[in-house]
Amino acid sequence: MDTRSHGLQSWIDRLNQAELPALASVVQDLQRLAQQESSSVRELAEVLLRDASLTSKVLRVGNSAYYNPSQETIRTISRAIVLIGFDNVRLIGLSVSLIDGLLTRAPREQLQELLARSFHAAVQARNIAGYVISRHEEEVFIAALLHHLGELAFWGCGGEQADELASALAQPGVEVEDAVRTVLGTSFRQLTQGLVKSWNIGELASLAHNSASHNDPAVFAVHLGTRISEAALQGWDSPALEAVVVQMAEFIGVTPEEALQQVLASADEAVKVAATFGASKLTSWIPNTDPEQIRRQQEQRKARLLQPNLLLLQEALQDLGLLATRRGDLGLILDKLLHGLHQGAGLERVMLAVLADGQSCFRAKRVIGEGTEGWMEDFLLPVEAREQAHIFSYVLRNKEALWMGVPASYNLNELVTQPIRQRLGQGMFFIAPLLAGNREIGVIYADNRISGRALKHEQFVAFQRFGQLTRRCLEALSKRG
Q1: pLDDT tens across 88-122, in order?
Q2: pLDDT tens-digit profile of 291-307?
Q3: 26 φ/ψ angles, rounded to the nearest 5 degrees
Q4: Are residues 418 and 450 in the same domain?
Q5: How many Å apart are CA 374 and CA 154, to the nearest integer?
Q6: 128 CB contacts (<8 Å, ≥6 apart)?
Q7: Quick check: is 2 in a domain?
């Protein structure tokens, strides 16, 4: 969306009307069935059958070893309800909707981490509830799963404002609550409560945010599950986890040692549940209970994220500097530029888009980074008239590099048009003119959309430097051509 949202009602309207209407509708209907004593198999089946993709995913989860150990094949929703239970099918439908509604839109790191934590909290809470209440454990699971609904919805749908907050939270010594309030005009807690009310998610999810209701065993189970999922991120032997395990032991009537074993078993179960629900990419965010595995996972996660390589960066800049002083090959110049920005500066997706077809449009000339191959085939952007400019034309005409998605460039946000957002996604990016001296060639585009990490100042400095050196290389080439 073009417009910025500010304040609780503004966000609720945006999420309900523009971003998540289908998810809101499914969640409301599934929760309504929970609140009716006489809900029928037919009514639940009707809600799930409205969406063929949801139906097939619910059946796939229902056929998994986790929910259906007897492995009797389930081909219909009504059969699933008979075999694995009304509440379980409703819970699966709601969980799958949440994963699909958010992860397919913006699989940014913050969203994956929080969704994984929410699943972990849900499994912990349900298993704690099993000790103290005789039924409705599924309600506890859902209340814990949706405990951070506002924050989940923001990271899934916040677009440029999500990039802005990610950047603010990356600053050392930042006050999280203050940063959230500045960007959203409300708190995550208020946004969650607003959505819970607006989507009619039920009393338990609402009560779980109110510390006065912790004498209700179901509410306290949600509270403990949520705290365990947060404390586990500090380590299974951390003081924070130890404190919550002591509380849990007292609550369910076991020793702290037994409670810790239950917590570790639930963490392993949460990994299975996330994988069963088709969200296996989340499992690396749930703390593993094997110490050796924990160390290995941390190393793998670090290796998966593209990191700047200062040695490569310096080499690429030096090579371009040399190519500017003697006749260089065009292909070599562009290769040095792309690899320097990608492997050197650590920018995940980079594209050179050049003026083509009689300077009537921008076409992708070179790309690098995961998932960019398609741009070579279908990235085509008409050069628009001055009174109807977009960011590509604007940058080329003004001959300056821009960092979009930070306060300094907010006044240019409307130049990031719908076709550009549809093709490249939403959020922060760098864009600079590609020039041969003063002759307009095209633009250089770069972002970090794969991981959703905020772009950094050092990367922008390198991006500007590469643009300047490439301009000199191309000018030298054209003079000698």
Answers
A1: 898 899 888 888 888 777 678 888 899 999 999 99
A2: 676 566 556 655 567 88
A3: -65, -45
A4: yes
A5: 28
A6: 221, 224, 225, 248, 251, 252, 262
A7: no
